[in-house]
Sequence to fold (239 residues):
Amino acid sequence: MKKLLFKLFCIFIPSSGLRHIFRFIGMNNKVIFIKDGKTINFLFNLKILKNFKISGYGTNNIIKIHLPANFTNSSINIAGNNCHFEIFPTTRLLDKTTFQLYGNNAQIIIGKDFSSTGNTMILATGNHSVTIGDDTIIAMDTIIQTSDFHTVYDINTKKITNKDSNIAIGKHVWIARRCIILKGASIPNNTIVSAQALVNKKFDEQNTIIAGIPAKIVKNQINWDFNTPEAYKEYFNKS
Ligand SMILES: CC(C)(COP(=O)(O)OP(=O)(O)OC[C@H]1O[C@@H](n2cnc3c(N)ncnc32)[C@H](O)[C@@H]1OP(=O)(O)O)[C@@H](O)C(=O)NCCC(=O)NCCS
Fold:
């Protein structure tokens, strides 16, 4: 019995001093830190994990964090089996962000140079994924979720009308404050998602601003730069 309990309560990194960070029930779950393509000992990189928590239950789940990373006050929570979370290197801030993988085979894959500046939740449900391309940034209070969590159905056929669906966010996308990105949304490269937009469908034109509830294209032939307009202007005038 003791042996079984020990097996069930498998803490990812067997260091008692760090139990408040990694708490996981189940077998064969892995957290892997990778630097320059090589797996490394995370103990030397604890400064990246300021108040960063990984928790949940299930088996065969894998979390891959490519360094550098700059996570503060954030968490990854898994409830399921065979889930996959992976984030590529970023020196940008990732603060107060919650990643949740609920159900078997849920996936969240995030490209390099990602930033998320607070109170944001990214959630993937069973057999579904959230993918985010390189150089994408998310402002505060945004929610991204592959499921509505309750079922809507046709009263005649009983068929579900709101099935879970993948979310694909492209490269160099700027998601402004307080957006909601729902199941099935697809946001192409170089898109700006305006503050408070609700994105619930697939967009395929690149270099646009989308805005409103539900989001629609309000401007095209645009792009954005990480610098402030002032800094951008200065740089542009010099070049
Ligand atoms: C996306 C954004 C940057 C676009 O700014 P812009 O280039 O000046 O765009 P405009 O104001 O010319 O907007 C174009 C059109 O979209 C509309 N629009 C812009 N933002 C909108 C929004 N959030 N919701 C609904 N409509 C919006 C404008 O009213 C305008 O409509 P019109 O052509 O009928 O007049 C800006 O609207 C925005 O959302 N800013 C918030 C940024 C933010 O959250 N920053 C946090 C730090 S990351």
